[in-house]
Amino acid sequence: MAAKIRFPLQMVTFFALVGFIVELNSERAYWFHSPDWFWGRIGETLGVSLFYGFAAGLALWVLARTSYRGVHQVVLAGAVFAWTVEGVITPVIHEAGPFDPFIPAMFAGWHGLGSFVGLFYLVRRLLIDKRPWILAMASAVYGVVVGLWAVTTWLPDSDDLAAGLEQGGADPATPGQYALTMVLVVLALALGHLLLDRVWPAEWKPGRAAAWILVGGTAAYSATWFPTIPYAPLRYGALIAIPLLGLFARAHRRSGPTFFQALRGDVVPLHLTALAPAALVSSAVYATVWAFDPDEAAVVSIRDLHVMGQMLGGGVALAWASWRAVRLGRAEPIVEPATVASRSDNI
Asked: How do the domains of the chain map onto residue ranges?
């Protein structure tokens, strides 16, 4: 009886922590760039982590149904995550019309690559592989990306500035304020991965109960707006059919380790210091641009290049992942997995 209760609680904690980790990129590092806004929204952070936990849970549910063959599957699952966040939990992906391809590509880059593949998968992969120097370099690259994006909050039409006005402050974050915020983000990320390591499941073969909980919990967020956009269900279904076709391709129906088995390992707490360059480099980039005091046109150019990079990155990564899934499927004959999870693991 204790085991039957312990495993579901472990998985609930696991999904909450994954939601917390991906939220740090999708929200904290992306929108809120002063410590006042950060501290003033701690409760919101925890609530939004649940919001993201459901979307991440659906992506992980799909990964758990197949054997793990490589990072291309995580890219495909990242698209499921991204389009569930912005296409079911919120209606943003539908606001540009039923046929717009650019917004979905941007979110595949922002949420999919940045949050799900980057802060969740890549950090976990490098930690369990004991490669802190590679993680430090990746953290530095991430610092450049988020540091430049933070500069765009200086624009008058910035959503981040509007969020700041709600908190009682109208000015963009100073370099010192931004540096402190990024230190808090990195510390939260390190803590999230340290705790995630403690609850990482040896295996998870999701049953019907998990599917109903994840689908029902996610759909509940859309209850107020889904009926107002008639084409939203069809658009969302058409979008996620793209990564789902790749995820359930021939290559992923062969026997082999699952995603959870492939990423099972021990995190060395000292290696979490390899995340520090994200805070150091982003703060240095922000302070450098601040010192040059660029005009509005220059900041607009930074924003446009950043958004274009997300669109191209998301679109190209999704195309590559789909091609990789098809190519692997043609390489070898299918061998159905022989292992079946015990009843106690099916939730």
From this structure: 2-345
